[in-house]
Amino acid sequence: MIFPDDILTGDPTRLALTAAGFAAYGATCLLPWLRHRRKRAAGAATGVDSWIVAHASQTGNAAELAEQTAATLRLAGIGVRVCELSDVTQSMLEHTERILFVVSTYGEGDAPDAGAAFAGRLMTRTVALPHLHYAVLALGDRAYSHFCRFGRALDEWLRAQGAQPLFDRIDVDRSSAQAIGQWRQQLSHLAGTSDAPDWGAPAFAPWRIAARRLLNPHSAGGAVWHIELEPAEGTLPSWQSGDLVQVVAPGDPEHPREYSIASIPADGRVHLLVRLHRHADGSSGVASGWLCEQADIGTTIALRLRQHRRFRLENNAARPLILIGNGSGIAGLRGHLRARVRAGQGRNWLLFGERNAVHDMHYGTELHALYETGMLERLDLAFSRDQPERLYVQDVLRRQAPALVEWVRQDAAIYVCGSLGGMAGGVDAALRDILGAEGVDALALQGRYRRDVY
Ligand SMILES: Cc1cc2nc3c(=O)[nH]c(=O)nc-3n(C[C@H](O)[C@H](O)[C@H](O)COP(=O)(O)O)c2cc1C
Fold it and tell me: Where is the signal peptide (predicted)?
């Protein structure tokens, strides 16, 4: 360090002033550090994390934002515990001073699966929470009539219990960067940091359409295409079965489309199953029309992978697996089946529904081969229009009730992928009739009932 000449002096006044200057400088450097330590110590001393970040997410957006929220708080030295909303108990609410909620809305303005237990168990009760300070980041989409309804309901319930908002609820329309920026700003303010890192989602990268094949020629339903993609440059990134991709179509750069990945990294490519959307006037959907019809093989598209933790195998990898789905929902289920084959796990039961067997048995050859080789222990199909009366997967499930009970007794996990409207509700009702509502709720709590429904 270089000292200016005039500091090296014998004058007592100047010496005192200099010493005071150093002390002030030292305090300026030390204070943030002390504050940081104090915050850490507060968490450590009580043996609990100081803050909770609770998320309820269906396809991972809220979960990702919750992790980023926690990372920002930790950077400021605040102890944080991240958990799913379903894991938040009454006792946690009563013994925690600060909880940040990051929740999305599904169905007809409902809680996502990860929040259903909390909504049913706690939001129907009165709990005194005057000590609790909270904030809500509500994710949704204004295209739905009940915009952010679950986030709103949670906010209202917390207020009614006497909890105090740290700041007003922030509603996020379709992952609006502006609203998320507002939340980040509020957090930085609360945490006393100005150095919160940027929250960029993984960047879109160029991928090439390597192959494309129509899966259901002459189908009575919309065309379904199998599309294979590989990175235009660099190596294949990693993902797990159950994960999703977001694809940007040139005609609508503001709204990336999400698709379940139908392959695993060992396949060397991302496989997607895309149903071509047709408008009433016969024109094709902007994104699906481009992916299935307009873009030539070799065309580069902007794509990014998205973790979908709720639909991954995770600790169900060693359990028997019951895979239930319809239509393009076979994509996510096929990803899991491929992961299971690779792991040498043959205890798989697939229940799949579509319209007609001759046209709509997507990946039929492959699935029958799995059945023949014992990697698919059971295969039950429901082709709704192959007989006079309509038949759906939920009907087949009811017919197979004894087998379902037995598989669940043997610790099986249930994965449902496909349409929310007709299928997921019907399957849920059938499961509740067969296993009992409490049985299904218990499976959900144990992570043994997972859904990717849209
Ligand atoms: C089947 C379906 C139903 C939805 N219903 C609603 C709704 O009723 N209200 C709303 O604001 N958003 C609704 N959304 C939009 C989601 O809340 C929004 O996409 C959110 O970013 C998803 O976050 P997540 O990935 O954390 O679940 C719906 C989305 C889907 C796919």
Answer: none
CA atoms within 13 A on the CB side of 154: 37
Alpha helices in 106-225 (DSSP H): 113-121, 149-160, 177-191
Q: How far apart are CA 27 and CA 172, in angstroms?
A: 41
Rounded-to-integer distance, Cα 442 and Cα 439, Å: 5
Beta bridge partners of 52: 81, 99
Residue type, 208: R
Residue nearest to atom 31 of ligand 1 (CA): 454
**Residue-number span of the structural domain to which 144 is assigned:** 48-191
d(CA 226, CA 230): 14
Ligand 1 geometric centre to CA of 105 (Å): 5
Q: Give the residue from 307, 334, 367 where a domain finishes.
A: 307
CA 106 / ligand 1 centre spacing (Å): 5
Same domain, 116 and 213: no
CA of 262 to the centre of ligand 1 (A): 22
Q: Give backbone dihedrals phi and psi of 126, rounded to 5 degrees, phi first.
A: -105, 125
Nearest to 434 by CA among 318, 322, 319: 322
pLDDT digits (tens, 9 = 90+) for 291-322: 999 999 999 999 999 888 889 999 999 999 99
Q: Are 252 and 314 found together in one domain?
A: no
Q: Give the pLDDT confidence of 366-376 residue by residue, as tens digits.
A: 999 999 999 99
Q: What are the angstrom distances between the C-alpha of 296 and each of 211, 228, 256, 272, 276?
A: 10, 12, 19, 16, 16
Protein residue with its CA nearest to atom 27 in ligand 1: 58
